[in-house]
Amino acid sequence: MVVTDLVKRLLIGRKLASAQLGETLLPKRIALPVFASDALSSVAYAPDEILLTLSLAGMAALTFSWEIALAVGVVMAIVVMSYRQTVHAYPSGGGDYEVATVNLGPTAGLTVASALLVDYVLTVAVSVSSGIQNAKAMIPFLTGHEGIAAAVVILALMALNLRGVRESGALFAIPTYGFMLAVLGMTGWGLFRIFVLGEPLQAPTADLEVVAAPGYENFSGVLVVVLLARAFSSGCAALTGVEAISNGVPSFKEPKSRNAATTLGLLGTVSILMLAGIVALANLTGLKLIDESSGSSFLRDGDPADIAHETAMGQLARTVFDHFQPGFFVVIIATMVILFLAANTAFNGFPVLGSILARDGYLPRALHTRGDRLAYSNGIIALAVAAIGLVLAFNASVTSLIQLYVVGVFVSFTVSQLGMMRHWSRHLRTEKNPARRARMQRSRVINAIGLTGTGVVLIIVLASKFIYGAYLAVAAMALVFWLMRAIKRHYERVAREVAVSQTDVRMLPSRVRAVIFVTDVNKPTMRAVNFARASRANSIEAVTVAADDAEAARIVAEWEAQDVGVPIKLIASPYREVVEPFLTYVRGLRSDNPREVVCVYIPEYIVGHWWEQVLHNQTGLILKARLNFMQGVMTTSVPYQLASSRLAIERAERGSPAAWRHSGSGQVRMGEALDGHRRK
User: Fold this and answer.
1) pTM as predicted
2) Rounded mean pLDDT of 297-316?
3) Angle at which helices 325-359 and 146-161 pack, to 10 degrees?
4) In the chain, fewer beta carbons within 10 Å around the N or the C end?
């Protein structure tokens, strides 16, 4: 086994046959951590973003945090109910893209797809960055190296996902459920201590006063509406990942739609409970956060207070478990891990969506093929590369990245709900069964509520975040949209050009000219001569370029001494070039008859070490690349295995049928058959 193959097997495991695809399907208990970890984990940073935004206006604005959280919870409930209709109506895994394409047309479908692709990349970047920020509570030396640390985590997640959906899901299930228990346990114990035991729990920042940022001191009038809208849009990050289940329905075990809808319901219920619990505890304990980069600050007894920034989850865990240090570490570790694993939702959604888009011709076709572990490996790698670029560019700053976030997901939410409205209206026109009509009408009402809710949120998000960075997300979506349209046009143009007609099937070349490229008189060249002879071309000639007059004279002399039986032509090269004079000569052989073909035979050394590639075949490689652009010219590489290639040959033979090793074709490649024939 080659070293690279060994490393690959260790990283991603043994290959799986296509027939084993059923073995990778997910039960609900595994599907929940696989597809819902993003939405579940958002409770670790969505409350932070609400509090950070409200802190711009000081203490007065912070009192609105529970109303903002309540509004976010209502929107989440609406979206979850709406997507339960989607997974039943479109179980093929196309999700929002399929809904929009079928009901609203290709342009709407591409709009949704571009929004989702950008949002998946941001999901990975934001989740991992938030995990790094929480990790700093325990690992202070990460400060200043957040971007590099986030990139390393993304690479690890990529490697895990390349092992396959089921295997990575089983691995991620324990920390996901651990996070749910840790947050719900912390919330429950904190509320028990406050309301039952009567303990006055105080967060580390409870005694601090928040000073408003410049320009926000007068918290009234229009400023109230603008700031609350911005805080609400930041809190809506909690909804990201909900759509991933609709894209992942094919990964569920049968009955797929029912299992997906059940998982979606569990996701919504648990997420709303955790979000409400965190915000309630934050209000009860007096927790405060500030965004120092925007100008807000802390005061203690009227004097500036310089304290280390700690997330809401970190402060609450420290407060609730003030007499039980292991509880603090459990919550922080679970939060850190789930935020890293939240990116797994995108690692499952992005490749599936990319595969569907590639199948439809909007993305490179390489994204449609499955890898060794039946995962869409190319999509996983593409997502990781894009996310790494973001975390390095923004140094894993959640506050900066969050401004780009949410826009894409609410674009897809809104367009998808409009598509579902069209879907039910279309089916109601033909459905006569009263029971089915009643179900369809109920579903249409749910999707109408979803359309209204998500549409309003989209407007709020765009209005409140556009100048703070959302315009970058919109520009990225527009760029992805344009690229996908361009790729589609390219594939359509190529399909028209290569379409087969009856003339193509029956038309044979009227004349074939064989040209052998000669750089020396040796075994590889003689093999090229014999292959050219075996092709029964109309004419055969050898050509060498006189870049060095003495060397060219030697080649011609040896050629004539060998009595090859094929004439050799010497091409002058006053500027000591090889490629251009040869190309000019071949171009001159081409006539105006499109049915005439020139076939160029190029001897090529097959070597066994990577460094030998640098020493051989460079001229031949350039020639092949240039000749490929010359109409009516074909190139044939004639391989000759050097002794150093024996190890490579043995590796290839171990992976090939035994019959190949003993066949005549194997002997020809090793030079035995034709060289023997030539010697005769």
Assistant:
1) 0.69
2) 79
3) 60
4) C
